[in-house]
Write a structure and sequence with these properties.
Number of strands: 28
Strand order of the largest sheet: 15-16-14-17-20-13-21
Oligomer: single chain
Strand content: 5-15%
Number of helices: 37
Length: 1068
């Protein structure tokens, strides 16, 4: 069985790409000679959830194979592996060759592999691309000049805000920077825009963090602010010169017309002379009619000077062409001038970001790929493998369309090394799986074009062996949903001008149906709203009404779906924007519909968390009346029941002094000392608030997660209340508790979040996105080096770019096609999530004349309905298929589990530092042993009875015992020294050797606890023990005796003392 070195799987939605990936992975590890072949495989995917799914599927398949009776699915997979799969259209050829193992061999091999994986799970390398990149950076941290302890931050936006704030704070210190910022502020106010320049600088900072701009930004890295200022002055002057020249040329043309005795009325409508006058007066507008062809200049039929005009037209057009060129150049310059000031701060922002990261010992995740690209890519692959401690032979990349260009470039050297070399007669392999129609992360570097190029002739590897596989059967959806999507996206292919994009949807979007016949698709429209005058009140009213109509239509749809026998958990509502999801969540919550969404799970929306935040705000500033009122409202509603809510708040607000406020709260059994809470650490302060106001009997996931956030800030940043509150203001909306699995609730999520998931019923409201209202973004255009001193310039992306010349128009149109592809891809992801039923809720957006809009998502659905049925403007609902539920009816069983609440609050007074191990053990026996060891140690300071006081003092000073333990220890020592069987061992006048090492002739050493030597060279030998009596202790003493007597002494008495709760002497 020979696998191709490089295989590409073009897998449309629901076509079983994960199944194909897992199958190929299993083939490699089952056929391999060793059981640890998985060590040499790197599987990369896009999200942690996908990683978990792939690992579960591989381990799950192996564990099923290893059973005596595998599940039917596993049995089918085993049969495919053993028998191979023939091509449907040509049964004589293999689609998948047999792997050459029997069922029994697969079973035995699976058992061995599973055992190996369990013992070496860390080497089971399936990870996200970012995690792998992180691993590489860790391995090369020293080479990259990074501290080994660096932490990764995902919060790049806050880093950027911090950097921009720091730059603006430098105004007044750095003269060049100050002048630049002041001039920029003045320019903005002159244009009647906000004087706040931080937003523009932030946008520029985002260019630095976005790898899509990496090639262009390299041109600016050696440019200083003063160089940019010089370029700006040069361009401003050039604009004036071009305008001046154009005005004088227009004047000459007007004179030429006069000189030739041409009457301006001879021109139709006098449009041509008026055009020249507008240029002369500096009022040229490129959007107005321009003159390029002979017939563009219209002459009145009655004109007597027609012949003269016709003779002059070629000259007029030629001169006009130079004017138009000049204006193109001027507009191009002006377009760049709008962006030159924030662009001149590019290096300043980069340096500030670097400085912040170094100070905080962090590395932004956005810099991962660039770091590797810059520093590691040129290293030989064996060297990289050596550092990683692994040598990968086989690579799997899932969701390839989301892999950024830089991430792919970073992987190519490793993959090329594997696919071009052989080990034990086996070449390395690469399998990439993806779908360019689901490429929706262009803003993060993931481009559909990368996959499209690889699917065609492009191959970045030395090994030419390459195979393209189309997975074109949909296993997810019912036939009606598949047919709808096939026809709908086939129709949308005509929207594209770009040949690759057109081909993608015309020839690669149709899918074969599976055995699930039936299903239902419903397209409905909200009633049309006739817009009033364009005053702001009406416009605002329209928006509200439209949103209300969409959310109520969504509720109606949910009720229809439930009536067919579906459960809440079967339904997902997909929205393009987060704000739409919030509107639906708020409405459905009011209607008592159970929901799961990132908004409903947001921590900042939890009442208990809001209470904590309000109280922290009050602790920060007791003059914050809003925080105080909010805190009082919570107490009024949830804690006290003596006064009406408004009266309670009014009385509390009337207590202006904090001491009076505390006393007043005491009258309602709320005991709080604000000053004491302020003295505590942030985490302790929050714990006190929770213990005072929140019931310890009920578990609260929001509070628990909030405590985790507080703890992290407290430990990592040593944040106080004020620091934490400013952090919370910026980041609160980012935190939501993980969605609990197993709840019977409707899910609401954005289309981007739904990628890779599937749901029985999909409802897609607000399906009326206006594609012409795109977010503000920028374009990089080529520039003349001699004009700008720069090879690339940054321009606002708008239709004006088309007037900057042919090359600029080409860039603009390509960008437009990319935006269209991204928008249709998002639509593709949304409509292919449905298994059984799909509901689209749109809006016709008709004009007053009844015209359908252009450049709007709703137009796609209207055009589709026109092609399929008798579309009527007055009909608001269209359906395909039968809405009866076909999937098996299972009653929902709630499998969610509640994590028990930890009610203990940490009290520092209850913390004791363990000075001896005994304090850390719970058993009495262990305590006795530890106590015996302690006495043994103190006895090493004691030679005679008179040394006891000194030994106790030393023990207290060295931390062996505390002052309170002195008496207990003293009693034990006295008990030993005065024991009637040990009298001679502690008598005065003898030589005492405590813990003295004896080196024997054969090199071994012994160390008796106590030797007492009298004048006759007689030795009394004593050894201290704890715990159980053992025979080996007696043997040990006899060994000591032999060693001592070989030195010429005579042991006359020897004893063992067992020290515990009681003293026990064993004479030997």
């Amino acid at each position: 069985m020979q696998r191709p070195s490089f295989s590409i799987y073009d897998a449309s939605a629901g076509s079983g790409k994960t199944y194909a990936l897992v199958k190929e992975y299993l083939k490699i590890i089952l056929v391999a000679k060793k059981n640890d072949a998985y060590r040499n495989i790197l599987a990369i995917t896009f999200t942690n959830k996908a990683v978990h799914e792939m690992k579960s599927r591989i381990v799950g398949s192996l564990s099923e194979f290893a059973k005596d009776e595998p599940s039917p699915k596993a049995q089918d997979l085993m049969n495919d592996l053993v028998n191979g799969v023939r091509k449907i259209d040509n049964p004589e050829e293999w689609d998948e060759e047999p792997i050459g193992l029997s069922i029994i061999q697969i079973k035995i091999k699976s058992q061995q592999i599973i055992k190996h994986i369990i013992h070496n799970y860390a080497a089971f390398d399936i990870s996200t691309i970012d995690k792998f990149t992180h691993k590489v950076i860790r391995a090369f941290a020293h080479d990259l000049g990074l501290p080994m302890t660096f932490e990764v931050t995902l919060d790049t936006e806050n880093l950027l805000v911090e950097a921009v704030d720091a730059i603006i704070a430098q105004a007044g210190e750095d003269e060049t920077l100050t002048k630049l910022l002041v001039d920029f502020t003045m320019e903005k106010t002159d244009d009647d825009k906000s004087w706040d320049i931080s937003r523009e600088i932030l946008d520029t900072g985002r260019l630095v963090l976005n790898e899509n701009n990496r090639n262009e930004i390299t041109h600016f890295q050696d440019k200083s602010i003063s160089e940019f200022v010089a370029i700006k002055a040069k361009l401003t002057e050039a604009c004036k010169v071009l305008e001046k020249e154009s005005v004088s040329i227009a004047e000459e043309l007007l004179l030429l017309i006069v000189k030739n005795g041409i009457d301006s009325k001879s021109f139709s409508g006098q449009y041509f002379p008026k055009h020249l006058v507008s240029i002369q007066e500096g009022k040229f507008n490129p959007k107005n009619k321009t003159y390029h062809e002979f017939d563009d200049i219209k002459i009145n039929k009655t004109a007597k000077d027609r012949a003269i005009i016709e003779n002059l037209i070629p000259e007029l057009l030629q001169v006009l062409a130079t004017i138009y060129k000049a204006f193109e150049k001027r507009d191009f310059y002006k377009g760049f001038l709008k962006n030159i000031t924030p662009l001149s701060l590019l290096n300043t922002v980069s340096n500030e970001l670097k400085k912040i990261q170094e100070e905080q010992n962090i590395l932004s995740i956005t810099e991962f790929n660039a770091l590797i690209h810059r520093e590691i890519q040129n290293q030989p692959a064996p060297f990289i493998y050596e550092r990683l401690g692994e040598r990968y032979r086989h690579f799997f990349i899932d969701e390839f369309q989301d892999t950024s260009e830089m991430q792919w470039q970073n992987l190519i050297p490793l993959i090329d090394n594997a696919t071009s070399s052989e080990i034990d007669g086996e070449k390395g392999t690469l399998m990439i799986v993806g779908d360019p129609k689901q490429s929706i992360y262009r803003w993060r570097g993931g481009k559909a074009e990368q996959f499209i190029d690889l699917s065609k002739a492009h191959n970045p590897f030395n090994n030419p062996d390459k195979k393209l596989v189309h997975l074109d059967k949909n296993y997810r959806s019912y036939s009606e949903v598949i047919k709808f999507n096939n026809d709908f996206f086939q129709m949308l292919s005509s929207e594209f001008e770009h040949s690759d994009y057109k081909d993608l949807y015309a020839n690669h979007s149709r899918q074969k149906i599976n055995s699930k016949v039936g299903g239902y698709v419903n397209i409905s429209f909200i009633p049309n709203i006739v817009k009033g005058d364009d005053n702001s009140e009406t416009a605002e009213g329209d928006t509200v009404d439209k949103s209300d109509l969409f959310v109520s239509a969504t509720l109606d749809t949910i009720q229809k779906v439930l009536a067919e026998g579906f459960e809440y958990k079967d339904i997902v509502i997909l929205t393009r924007k987060r704000s739409q999801g919030i509107a639906i969540a708020n409405f459905l919550t009011e209607q008592k519909i159970p929901l799961l969404s990132s908004e409903t799970l947001m921590i900042q929306n939890a009442t208990e968390v809001r209470l904590i935040i309000h109280l922290l705000k009050y602790l920060k500033n007791n003059s914050d009346l809003e925080a105080k009122a909010n805190f009082l409202q919570y107490v009024a509603q949830n804690v006290q029941n003596q006064l009406p809510i408004h009266d309670f708040i009014a009385q509390g607000m009337a207590s202006k002094q904090e001491a009076d406020f505390e006393k007043w709260l005491m009258s309602f059994d709320v005991a709080l000392s604000f000053q004491n809470i302020r003295k505590k650490s942030l985490y302790e302060a929050v714990e006190v608030i929770i213990s005072k106001f929140l019931s310890s009997n009920t578990t609260n996931a929001y509070v628990q997660y909030f405590l985790d956030i507080v703890l992290e800030r407290d430990i990592r940043n040593q944040a106080g209340i004020s620091d934490f509150l400013s952090f919370w203001d910026k980041n609160a909306e980012k935190f939501s508790i993980p969605s609990p699995e197993g709840n019977n609730a409707v899910r609401i999520m954005t289309i981007h979040k739904s990628k890779g998931l599937e749901f029985p019923v999909v409802i897609f409201p607000f399906a009326e996105e206006d594609y012409s209202r795109k977010p503000k973004d920028k374009l990089w255009l080529n520039a003349e080096e001699e004009d700008f001193g720069l090879p690339k310039v940054l321009i606002d992306n708008s239709s004006a770019v088309e007037g900057f010349g042919e090359e600029a128009a080409e860039v603009y149109n390509q960008k437009k096609q990319e935006e269209l592809l991204d928008n249709i891809n998002v639509l593709y992801v949304a409509l292919t999530r449905a298994e059984e039923q799909l509901y689209v809720i749109s809006n016709m957006n008709l004009s007053r004349k009844g015209d359908i809009p252009t450049n709007n998502m709703c137009t796609f659905f209207i055009n589709y309905l026109k092609s399929k049925s008798d579309f009527q403007i007055e009909d608001l609902e269209y359906h395909f298929g039968d809405k009866t539920k076909l999937s098996s009816k299972k009653k929902h069983v709630d499998t969610s589990q509640t994590i028990p609440l930890v009610t203990e609050i940490l009290n520092p007074n209850n913390i004791k530092i363990a000075q001896r191990e005994a304090l850390m053990w719970g058993t009495l026996q262990q305590e006795a042993i530890e106590y015996g060891n302690l006495i043994h140690e103190i006895l090493s300071f004691v030679k005679t009875k008179s040394d006891i006081d000194l030994a106790l003092t030393k023990s207290i000073e060295s931390g062996l015992i505390t002052l309170s333990q002195r008496e207990t220890v003293n009693n034990t020592l006295q008990g030993i020294i005065n024991h009637n069987e040990l009298e001679g061992y502690f008598a005065e006048g003898n030589e005492i050797l405590n813990e003295q090492t004896i080196i024997q002739s054969e090199g071994r050493t012994v160390k008796p606890d106590r030797m007492v030597i009298n004048n006759l060279k007689e030795v009394f030998l004593l050894d201290y023990k704890t715990g159980t009596h053992y025979v080996k202790y007696q043997q040990q003493l006899e060994n000591y005796q032999s060693a001592i007597e070989l030195m010429g002494y005579k042991v006359v008495k020897k004893a063992l003392i067992y020290i515990g709760k009681e003293i026990e002497v064993v004479n030997l």
